Write a sequence for this structure.
C-alpha cells in the first residue's frame, strides 16, 4: 500500500528547500511547483528568510572568479 | 568568532608537521588572500604584499606549535603576526629611504595600536568572504552548468525563477530545485570546514 503525501505540506517544502528529501520526492515536488504558485511563494519566503542566502549575495555577488 | 571548532583546530594542529603538504596547501588557500588584502589595504604594493604573505607563513610555520586556542582565536593570532610584520616592513623601508619616507612611516606606526581591532575586523571580514568563494568554487564542479546558472541567477542575482527558467529552458520547478540544491551544498561544505559561524559573525559585526 502506498500513501500519498500532501505536496503543499510546509514540512516537506522545508525539506525540499534544504535538499533533504529522497531523489524521487525532490522530483515530485519539482514537478508540483510547475502548477502551484502558493508553494513557489512559500519557498521564496523561506529562502529569503534564510541567512545563508544573504551570505551568498554578500560574498558572491560581482565575483568574477566564481 | 569561534574559530576553534574541531575541524579548524585540526587543520592548525596539522600545520605543526611541515611535511603535511595537504594541510599547508589548504591553509595557504584559505589565508593567503586574507593576508594579501590586509597588506594592500595597509598600502603595500602587489609584490610587497606577496612578500608579506610569505613572511607571515614562514612565521606561522615557526610558531604554530606555540599557538594555544585557550589564549585566543587563531585568526586573532594571525592578524597580530601580520600586523607585526607590516610594522617590520615599514620600519625596513624607513631605514632604506631614511630622510624621504620617514613621515609616512612614522604616521603608519603611530596609527597602529598594540591591539588593532581594525586589522582583526578586516581579517575576519576577508576570511568570511574568502570562505564562501572557496566553497563556491569547490561546489560548482558538482553541478551541471545550467543548474549552477539557475542557482546563480536566482540566489546571487536575485532574479525571478520564471524569468530564469525561460532563459535557461528549464522548468520553473527545476530552477527552484537548483537554487535549493546548490545553496544546501554550499552550506554543507562550509559547515564541514567547521567555521560556518565566521560568516554570520562578520555580517553582525
Amino acid at each position: 500500500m502506498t500513501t500519498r503525501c500532501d505536496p503543499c505540506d510546509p514540512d516537506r517544502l522545508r525539506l525540499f528547500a534544504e535538499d533533504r528529501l529522497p531523489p524521487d520526492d525532490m522530483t515530485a515536488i519539482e514537478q508540483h511547483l510547475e502548477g502551484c504558485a502558493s508553494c513557489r511563494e512559500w519557498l521564496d519566503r523561506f529562502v529569503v528568510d534564510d541567512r545563508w542566502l544573504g551570505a551568498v549575495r554578500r560574498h558572491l555577488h560581482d565575483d568574477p572568479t566564481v | 568568532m569561534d574559530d576553534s571548532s574541531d575541524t579548524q583546530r585540526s587543520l592548525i594542529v596539522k600545520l605543526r608537521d611541515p611535511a603535511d603538504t595537504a594541510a599547508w596547501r589548504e591553509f595557504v588557500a584559505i589565508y593567503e588572500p586574507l593576508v594579501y588584502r590586509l597588506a594592500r589595504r595597509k598600502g603595500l604594493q602587489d609584490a610587497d604584499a606577496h612578500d608579506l604573505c610569505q613572511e607571515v607563513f614562514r612565521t606561522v610555520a615557526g610558531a604554530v606549535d606555540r599557538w594555544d586556542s585557550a589564549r585566543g582565536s587563531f585568526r586573532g593570532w594571525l592578524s597580530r603576526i601580520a600586523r607585526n610584520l607590516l610594522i617590520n616592513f615599514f620600519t625596513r623601508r624607513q631605514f632604506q629611504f631614511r630622510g624621504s619616507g620617514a613621515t609616512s612611516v612614522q604616521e603608519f606606526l603611530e596609527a597602529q595600536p598594540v591591539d588593532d581591532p581594525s586589522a582583526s575586523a578586516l581579517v575576519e571580514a576577508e576570511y568570511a568572504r574568502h570562505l564562501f568563494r572557496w566553497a563556491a568554487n569547490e561546489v560548482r564542479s558538482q553541478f551541471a552548468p545550467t543548474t549552477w546558472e539557475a542557482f546563480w541567477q536566482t540566489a546571487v542575482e536575485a532574479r525571478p525563477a520564471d524569468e530564469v527558467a525561460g532563459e535557461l529552458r528549464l522548468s520553473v520547478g527545476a530552477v527552484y530545485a537548483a537554487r535549493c540544491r546548490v545553496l544546501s551544498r554550499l552550506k554543507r561544505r562550509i559547515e564541514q570546514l567547521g567555521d560556518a559561524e565566521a560568516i554570520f559573525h562578520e555580517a553582525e559585526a
In short: The interface with chain B takes residues 16-20, 26, 29-34, 40, 43-44, 47, 50-61, 63, 65-66 of chain A (CB under 8 Å). The first helix of chain A runs from residue 10 to 17. The radius of gyration of chain A is 15 Å. Chain A has a mean pLDDT of 85.
